[in-house]
Write a structure and sequence with these properties.
The chain has two domains: 14-59 and 165-223; 64-158, no CATH class. It is 39% helix and 17% strand. It has eight helices and seven strands, in the order H-H-E-E-E-E-E-E-H-H-H-E-H-H-H. The chain has helices at 14-20, 33-55, 124-131, 135-140, 145-148, 166-190, 194-198, 209-219, and strands at residues 64-72, 78-80, 85-94, 102-103, 109-111, 115-118, 151-158. The protein has a four-stranded antiparallel beta sheet, with no helix packed on it. The protein has a three-stranded antiparallel beta sheet with strand order 2-6-5, with no helix packed on it. Helix 2 (33-55) packs across helix 6. The longest helix has 25 residues, at 166-190.
Length: 228
């Protein structure tokens, strides 16, 4: 008997999805139920994954190695990268847009799950105050990325590994269940009489406020989007 499997970028395998959804093949098909239902689940896994990553700013929760991001610097000491950051292998800077990339010594930066953080150091104005003996002014400000570069280029590893955490899998199953519910509803409406169709005017959207909130919780845990 032919079998179906999800693609290599899937968040979870077909057996797990099949066990957790609220429907089976007989709810949708009258022949080759299991095969056709598995094909449908593979399609919906892909669609739900796309929805999740679009809401996450086109990011995957799966592991990425040696990802490279270029960023224009701002007057902040922390620059956001794609969550979660696991390791930063190299940071390069341009002091002007026309200058060459120069690698920054690792003593100049740290990182959190969300951000590349410039190590605490005084900015140039503060250094002048210190030279004049004003210790209080020297502690009042710290350098920002814009003080040392116009652009930075970061090479780093990110993501949750080969599989995303359980809460992300749970959100995906919730999305798939809603898609299945809508498809079943469409089948019911298509087979209904005009009188029955009149009672089916309410539209169920896949993305409820609850699902949006759940995706927001797992993509920005702890509301970690503040600037230092």
């Amino acid at each position: 008997m032919p079998t179906v499997s999800v693609d290599s970028g899937a968040y979870q395998d077909l057996d797990r999805i099949r066990q957790r959804v609220d429907y089976d093949g007989a709810d949708f098909y009258s022949d080759n139920e299991q095969l056709r239902f598995d094909e449908l689940l593979v399609e919906l896994e892909r669609e739900s994954r796309g929805i999740f990553e679009t809401l996450w700013g086109d990011q995957t929760p799966l592991e990425e190695t040696d990802r490279v991001d270029e960023k224009r610097t701002t007057d902040d000491a922390a620059i956001p990268l794609a969550y979660p950051i696991n390791d930063v292998s190299k940071v390069e800077r341009k002091t002007t847009l026309a200058s060459d990339w120069k690698e920054l010594n690792s003593d100049w930066y740290d990182f959190t799950n969300h951000r590349l953080v410039l190590a605490r150091r005084p900015n140039t104005n503060t250094l002048r105050h210190r030279q004049r003996g004003n210790a209080l002014a020297g502690d009042a400000q710290r350098a920002t990325w814009k003080d040392i570069a116009t652009k930075i280029r970061v090479t780093y590893d990110r993501g949750f590994g080969a599989e995303p955490p359980e809460d992300i899998k749970s959100v995906q199953v919730q999305l798939i269940n809603r898609m299945l519910r809508m498809r079943k509803r469409e089948q019911t409406v298509a087979a209904a009489s005009p009188e029955e169709f009149a009672g089916q005017t309410e539209t169920n959207e896949v993305l409820t406020d609850e699902i949006r909130d759940r995706i927001s919780d797992v993509t920005s845990p702890g509301l970690g989007t503040f600037s230092i």
